[in-house]
Amino acid sequence: MKKYIYFLGIIFIASACKKEKLPEQQDFNSPEFFVKCSVDGVPVSIEAGKNDNYMFASSKVNPDSVRVYCAEIKQKNCSNACGYSLKFEINDYKLSIYPSSIDTALRSGFYQINDSVLTPLYYRGTFFTSSSSSITPSLNWLVNNGQPKQGNNITYTFLKNTTPTISLSKADVLCSQTHSNQFKIGNDFNFNISAYRDTTILKRNFTFSAFPNVNSTGYTYFWEFGDGSRSQLTNPTHAYAQPGLYRVKLTLVNSLGISEVGYYQIDATNPTICDGNYFANFVGVPNKKAFSAVNVVLVDNEGKEYSTKNSNQTINAGVEISSVEEYKATGGGQKTKKLKIRFNCNVFDGSKTISIQNGEAVIALGY
After folding, report:
1. How far is it, in rounded angstroms, from Cα 137 to Cα 139?
2. First to last CA, the chain
3. Where along the chain do its domains lie?
4. Secondary structure of 99-150 as H, E, C letters
């Protein structure tokens, strides 16, 4: 009986000494994390490890089904008059239901502010043949050497700032020809080229024109006709001395010095029997879900919350990420990235706008 009582005593003592599981930590108080900026002209500095400030790293999926990577620096144990705090929320570049790469979502570069007036992140390109042959040809399209598509036209969606190559191979009973062009997606003045041939028998005279997506009189034209001849006229006419296939190149330069290159193939035989050229048109896909955009939230000394959403931004508004590196996991096991950023924006509370300028920070975001 004594042994039995003694055994129960051991069990009781062991149960009483068992510790409760500690709450999972999602924050860092390392002094390497900070935010410095000017708030309506007043210098503001928030540093982790000082005044009980911590860097909180997390992630979530918002109501639009977009994953959001979050970083917030604020006082940890405070409920009133807590001083300034700042939160950065960076949206992923696609819906959360699709596989995503954190190294694509968080990378060095410029990110626009989520102010409900966002430029497109994706562009939809439509490509259609310029052939008017009475013989039905075989038309095969290739996008970046991927799977071929057939038909008189194709539609494809591209990520902004990419440079896809589009190739069209045309074949019929008379001839075959392949033509390709590379496009800068998001460039405002991608253009198409057309050529009109003099119908006089045995002449190989062509008049060239270019049609930029954005009409402007400030362009400079540099034509190369493929036979060593050149021109800087807007709509030049060129005569080919010998029959053959010539690849015409146009370099178009706008008033800012930004250039775009396009090609057109000339079949200078008598009569012309091949035409593998095509036209392209790009339309921005509305960025309604704010893909790859940043929301900045400021809480002032009085506890009022201001956000970049629905605010009017200046021309220099945005967040520039200068470096991204893997950081240690939180106490709860969530992976994090450490970012070095610069930022400028306006934030709004529904009635008042505050300007945040010359911001710089080192932050941690969960993913």
Report:
1. 6
2. 58
3. 25-117+293-366, 122-285
4. CCCHHHHCCCEEEEECCCCCCCCEEEEEEEECCCCCCCCEEEEEECCCCCEE
Residue (of 241, 212, 214) closest to 225 by Cα position = 241
CA distance 120 to 140: 29
Query: Does this model's pTM top 0.85?
Result: no
CATH class of the domain at 122-285: mainly beta
Closest C-alpha to 248, from 234, 259, 261, 233: 261
Task: Return the closest-CA partner of residue 85 out of 312, 313, 361, 329.
Answer: 361
b/e per residue 294-310 (b: at least 16 CB within 10 A): bbbbbbbeeeeebbbbe
How many other C-beta atoms lie within 10 A of the C-beta of residue 365?
A: 27
How does the average pLDDT of the chain come out, rounded? 86
- Residue closest to 319 by CA, chosen among 56, 106, 27: 106
pLDDT of the residue at 137: 73
**What is the three-class DSSP state of 274?**
coil
Q: Which of 82, 83, 85, 101 is nearest to 93 (CA)?
A: 101
- Tokens 């928030």 sit on residue: 46
Name the residue with higher pLDDT: 199 or 209: 209
By C-alpha distance, which of 92, 87, 138 is closest to 345? 87
* SS3 category, 11: helix
Q: For residue range 251-270, what is the model confidence (pLDDT) as tens digits?
A: 999 888 888 899 999 988 86
> Confidence band (pLDDT; 50, 70, 90) for 202?
low
217's tokens:
């009189």
**Residue 270 neighbours by CB distance under 10 Å:** 10
In the chain, the amino acid numbered 40 is D
The pair phi, psi for residue 263, each rounded to 5°, is -130, 155
